Amino acid sequence: MHLVLFLIFAIFALAGAVNLLLQKHPINSALSLIVVMSSLAVLYLLLGAEFLAMAQIIVYAGAIMVLFTFVVMLLNEGREEKTWGSRTAKTLGFPAAAVLLAIFAATILRAGRHYGTISLSDGVTTTQELSKVLFRDLLLPFELTSVLILIAILGAVALARKDNGEA
Amino acid sequence: MTPDIFRILPEVVLTLVGVLVMLTDASMSPKSSRRLLGWVAALGVLAALAASLWQGTLPAGTAFYGTVQTDAFSTFFHVLICGIVLVAILLSIDTLPPDRSPEQHHVGEYFALMVFGAVGMCLLTSAVELLVVFIALEISSISTYVLAGYRKQTGKGPEAAMKYFLLGSFATAFLLYGIAMVFGATGTTEVREIATLLPAARSHLFVLLAFGLMMVGVLFKVSAAPFHVWTPDVYEGAPTPVVALMSTAPKVAAFALLIRLLYGVFPLLHPLWMPLMWVVAAVSMTVGNLAALRQQNVKRMLAYSSIAHAGYLLTAFTGSGTEPIAAVGFYTAAYAAMNVGIFALLSVVGGYDERRSSVTDYRGVLYSSPLSGGLMLLFLISLIGIPFTGGFFAKFYSFTTAMQGGAGWLVLIGLLNSGIAAAYYLRLALSMALPSAASAKAQGLSSVGAGVVLAVGIAALATLALGILPGHVLDAAHAAAQSFAAIRGF
Amino acid sequence: MNTTVPAEWYLILSAALFTLGVVGFLIKRSLISIFMSIELMLNAVNLSFVTFAHEWHAVKGQIFVFFVMMVAAAEAAVGLAIIISIFRARGTLTVDQIDLMKL
Amino acid sequence: MNDPMLFLPLIPLLPFLGFLLNGLLGSRLPKALVSAIALVFPLASFALVARAAWMVHAGLALPVVEHDAPAWIVSGAMHIGFGLALDQLTLVMLLVITGVGFLIHLYSVGYMEHETGYWRYFAYLNLFLFFMTTLVLAANFLLMFVGWEGVGLASYLLIGFYIDRKSAGDAGKKAFVVNRVGDFGFLIAIFLLLGNFGTLNFSEIAAHLAAPAGLSGGTITLICLCLLLGATGKSAQIPLYIWLPDAMEGPTPVSALIHAATMVTAGVYMIARAHALFDLSPTALMVVAVIGAATAFFAATVAMVQTDIKRVLAYSTISQLGYMFLACGVGAYSAAVFHLMTHAFFKALLFLAAGSVIHGLSGEQDMRRMGGLRKEMPVTFWTMTAAVLAISGFFPFAGFFSKDAILAAAFHQGAVGKALWTVGLITALMTSFYMFRLWYLTFMGKSRTESRHAHESPWIMLTPLMILAALSVSGGWVGMDRFGAFLAPVTGTPANAGDAHVELMLSVLAVLVAAAGWFVAHSIYGRSGSQSMTESLASPRRVLENKYWVDELYVACVVRPIEWIARYVLGWIGELVLVRGSAWLMAGIAGLCGEWLRRWQSGNLRSYAAWLAAAAAVLLIFVLAGTLLGVGGFAQTISWAVR
Amino acid sequence: MILSLILLVPLAGAALVLLLPERGRIPAWIALLDSLFTFVCTLHLPAHFVSGRGGFQFEENVLWLSHPRISYHLGVDGLSLWLVVLVGLLAPVGVLASWKSIQKNTKAFYSLFLLQQTAMVGVFVSLDLMLYYGFWELSLIPIAILTAMFGRNLNESSAMKAALRFFLYTFIPSAPLLVALLWLYAHTGSFDYTALQAAIASGSLPSWQLGWVSVAFLLAFAVKVPVLGLHGWLADTFSEAPVAIAMIAAGKLGLYSLIRFHVELFPALAREAAPWMIGLAVIGILYGAMLALVQRDFWKLLAYATLSSLSFCTLGIYGFTLSGMNGALLQTVNEGLIGAALFLMLGVLFDGARSCQIADFGGAAHRAPRLAALFVIASLAMIGLPLLNGFVGEFLVLSGTFTGVSKGWATAAALGVILSAAYMLRLIQKIFLGEAETNSPRIRDLSWQETCTVAALAGIMLAMGVMPTIWISTMEPALQSVTQKILTVDQSPVSTASGTVASASTGEPR
Description:
The structure holds 5 protein chains of 5 kinds.
Chain B: H1 4-7, H2 9-27, H3 35-57, E1 61-63, E2 68-70, H4 72-95, H5 107-126, H6 130-148, H7 156-186, H8 191-197, H9 204-221, H10 230-237, H11 240-246, H12 249-265, H13 270-293, H14 298-315, H15 323-350, H16 365-368, H17 370-384, H18 390-404, H19 408-433, H20 445-448, H21 450-468, H22 471-487
Antiparallel strand pairs in B: 1-2
Helix pairs in contact in B: 2-3, 2-5, 3-4, 3-5, 4-5, 4-11, 4-12, 4-15, 4-21, 4-22, 5-6, 5-12, 6-7, 7-9, 7-10, 8-12, 9-12, 10-14, 11-15, 12-15, 13-14, 13-19, 14-15, 14-18, 14-19, 15-17, 15-18, 15-21, 15-22, 17-19, 18-19, 18-21
Chain C: E1 4-6, H1 7-27, H2 31-56, H3 59-90
Chain E: H1 2-19, H2 26-48, E1 57-66, E2 69-76, H3 78-101, H4 106-125, H5 129-138, H6 140-149, H7 156-188, H8 193-202, H9 207-224, H10 234-240, H11 243-249, H12 252-263, H13 267-293, H14 298-319, H15 322-353, H16 364-367, H17 369-382, H18 389-404, H19 407-432, H20 448-466, H21 469-491, H22 499-502
Antiparallel strand pairs in E: 1-2
């Protein structure tokens, strides 16, 4: 059961990711990304991360990707043009990406024997456990995110506000 | 026991100041001058600096369940970062476009971002939990991304922000992947726990992979070659006062992080990362200097120079014991002093609108504004690494450290590089010294405002002091290094 | 029917997604799409975190993911603002045309 | 033996004081005072020398050496002082230098009266006396070298006295540089002496030589040849004589003093001074003699066709110096010095008289535009006649005795000596010819001057002429034997003791030869100054008039090659290609690398990402593959990683 | 304290010049008074120097930094004594030489000029190698900047190129020097001169690397001298730099460093380098002289002449004979004096005619008799006329080389004596003698300050030519100890010096 679910959603995720790359229109890419994220949410569930799965749907697929699509619509950006500004990206970038994948894969396959297997019966991390750590041990980072978000707001205002006319 | 809050006192102060700046900005009438905000921010950062110094008197210790640690190391870098931010703010007060000009907007946001950015940078130096590291890094980065794009009216400003942002996020993803790997290998993200668990990690390959990925992220932040590609474009596009900040403060923080990673997390990998640093240092110096050789745009030239300086800094890591930490600490201080200084003067002489951008535009500056020109000369001399300036002593100390670690060839490469580097620094310096009839009257230092004078004065004094009487700073750097020795038995 | 999946499969998936993100950065021409590729990379990393969290039974890994999401949200706000401002300044999002600063 | 009453240091220092006074203040002093200063100090110097001579005559034992002289150069074991020494040779030289020198100073007061740089002229002249007396008084080679170079300097300054005349400047430069070639030889000789003897003092070297030293003959010969090179430079011998004719660009009294009477004899003096060395090296002596004879002959041939009155005298000087060298070469040092002395009298006289002629003709030097001056300038004519007779070697004029002594000495030196004697005799013939040619062209016949009224010179110029004429007549009466005996403590007794019969024969022969020369000159130029013989001997004459093209040869063989090498080999290949080029090359390579590296900076975000990805890949390979494969010496890491 | 005073007075003067307004001649007067005071201070040194005693005198030693250990260690011995005085003397000379030619931006000029003086004195008195290196590098900056600011030619880029070339030529080789210093520190833990000397002499350092260290030292100094082949910066600097700067740019620093930090610090290795250096020196003498012979530009002529006469110093140093060393050091001082005088006077000519082409001059002696007279005296000193200082130096070098090293090399070097007369007299003749050229009417004679300055220099030349013992006797003990070290090396069996030179040190005449 686990294997089936994993395979299905892993393939979904990969397909979404590949589609993201292949789609010419940003809106299609955004939709593909949502597919990836949703699939990942399922995988999180399989891994017992209940809360994260929900957060993944709400925060990522919900909030962030909505923002993306909104901006795509706002700017009314059409299909990507086929431009050839960078030869380096092809000649250097693709081999590099291939090497990266090879290294990751080789390392993981070789190191994998030190890691166990995952099954549905492994149990679920409860939100309670999570919040215990989050609000006690990791109180500081949690508070820090407020600063982070403040900065994001400030930045968005500073960069995106139209200045023409008003002071 | 010291209450936890004292361990993050400077950050708290900075946050409050940032909020205060925002509130003041909001409460001011849209027509009134925003200079006040700058002074508020400057005073606030000064308070944070004082707080950091006070922190230095506390016994070393951790807080917030072992997520932050203050000791001599963090104090050193806190003071340094607060100092840089202070100078950058002072500089910005007067060099941002004058009030009510069409370019002048979001001054409140500008200063608030600087102050908030400082929170992230400061925290980066005291964080001992990779999660905090990550968030602090993001705070500092995002504020810098935004500041880089501050001149959004021009074509270059947003482009700089875009490049910086996308490439920065790209690199951060690598760093994050590295953190994930180290977490996977040891099951924790706390620096000291990782270091202790490392020999017994589940998979040593993951440790290596984690190390490599994290290095990608950090080396990007310190703009070491070959991860430097973003630097010239971003420096060119960002407003000059911002470059003064972002070429120094985030870099200082990033170097603190690098030290934390190398000496706090991966001391075990010393035989591995030492040659890595060797190579990266050599490549950075060479690439930076050679590329700067023919560069005409002054800001780009100095961007390449900062790549080279990253190389000189990395040279120190080839030393043995904790000496490199002290050397890096000292170098960052000297580098900050001279780089802030030179960019401060560039923003005065070159102007916010960059009336002067290429080397030839600086002809005759020494005559039309002798004081600015003279001080620029001082900073350039320091960048070259002429003795009795901070730049020399920093380089000297860094290279001494490397030499004692046995990296003689690297030192040779480094010094030959500084010989090459002299060519382009001197080109600018001599260009200013050439008598030129065509030179327009440059903006004088004194006519701009007290903030700039103060900023440049601090930078100049620091540059000289670090060259002539480096003792105190050196001692502080040593103390910082010792705090690492206390952790790991170096 | 309780089949198991080796942890390394998850990790491989994560690595693959990460690499696809890298490739996306390289091949996409629109800034927004490039930004999405970065989000993809972050997601890939998150998967690794969750897998490792499961392996170590450590909650911290999951919390890390939580923070990454928050950071991603913040980044998205800023990044999209940057994209808007660049669109205003240059009228395009095609990355190959945004190379005012070079050499 | 240190008699403080001689005041030896004052002899050079007094003229030096005159130099300083005139040199520093002369431009602001009145002319009379300048003349007074210029005359008083040499006179005082001469008085001191005369006093010393009188004391020697009264029985003062020579040599007098200053032992407690102040140190000059002291370095390690080397100690060189300002030591002065007075012996018979020096005394003779000093008498000639200060005596003739003073007379010429006196003459110059009249001659130079209308020149602008009056004070400068006398300052230089005094400076010359300072260096010349230093040269002869020096007790060691280095101090002698001081005088040696110093007189060269004074000569340079005086030749170039007319500063706006380019030829004068060229001549001065040529004189100095050619002299420097000689000085180079001298310097090498000094080093050789220093290296072999550890000292430069004449007395100590002589002592070393007297003792059975382990020196090879080759070394001695080398030293002597180096010294000889120096001597040929200063004394205008082959191959370095070329500067002397040009030196006539200077004022005529200068030619008389420096380029006839005193400075040019320094080489002879030096060889006589170093005779102890030369005596040990027959080869060197032979070279000296041959050079002397060759120079004497060669210069005489050139002198026969010169038309410039001073150039005739210049070549005559070279020729006469050749005689002196010949004398040295055959070991007759005292004869050489004897001739040196008499030559100083009559050659100074010749020059001064010529100067008087030139003065009278307002600067005319070409003999073809002279003639018939006998009546206008009687004193000059008669004094000149005395000098001509003296140089031609007529009995009983001074030149007869000294030249006779030299020829006799050469005659007694075996087969080679006979050959040299023959050359000397032929030279004597030519000497007589060209001197009478000069005499006829200048004083006899009809005036060829172009409506210029010649006038006799003032008395202040004529007085020295008359004194010198008296000396030219009587200078030789002291006789070679007595002169030789006087110098014997210094130069040793001449080896030859030929019988009186042969001596007499030789003397008569010499006089006959001189008479023959007069006869030829008379037959050609005596009759109204016709130049009938010129056409018939056109081609050898052209060779002679062009002075055998020696100057051109030197320019082509030495000057041009050096300039060519400097300009093209060193200037282009050395400087441009090697020194500049290498710097350019390195800068260029660095610059090109820079340009290439900047290509990375294409401005394209995707390219940047590609670089980043590639860099990340390389870094990961470095970390993983490096560790696993053990590349780069990560031994420790390996053992830990591959558990 | 006197040494610190000598270092600080010019520095304080520079600060004062910067602080006071640039009105009238205030900066020039301050610089003049300051440099005169410094000169008086430097005269204190020979006045109180104990001649016979070995080792350093007037020592000051304060710990500057404990980690890395760097001390503020100053001191002079016979080697550096007169060089300090020379620098002290040349400063007022330089100020007076600039009196007329530098009219604008005097503040910048004089402050940098005084800074330069501090740096140069610092080089001579530092006994801590790091301190020494500091001053060494510091001395480059004012020269470069002043050359660019006050370059003589109207063509801007040529001044900048000259400044750049000078700087890079000297700065890049000092990179290996610093590496070598760091290497020494890494192996001995000290930058102190005497400590390092002892450490190197003990033979405990790895010899293979030590060889490279000494080569690095040699290279850095040889460029600064400059030795033949490394002189690419010389002609440009001489053509472009302001007079006061050009007169101090060459010679002294490099030659002093060669003796002190190459020969004395690495006797065994200097011994191995000697044949090369001697060869370069002799070829340099002839090379420079021959090139000087054909120059059309008098600055270039002076540059090549300087190359030639500095090569005499190198020859003397690497002959390792006492006489040669004495001569070399004396010649170093001579070169400073003569060069200063010649530069000053050529500067006056240049300012008058705005040309450095020899052909543009002629008959200047009429318009400028004092200039002509003093120029001739300085030239004579340069070409080594006896009783002037140049002769003593050259004679000692040549005699030392001839008797102690190699007759062939010495003879070849002596040929330079002929050539030097040729080029200097050619210069004199073309400029001062003959008919007046078009540019000549614009030439002025020396002003009274300049006359006094050059006359004083000429007086010193004469004094040094007549009474060189005053100088030599103070120099000799220090140089004696240097040659002694070389001798000691020779007697030890490890020496691998080649045959021609091995006989050198024994060849000193008794």
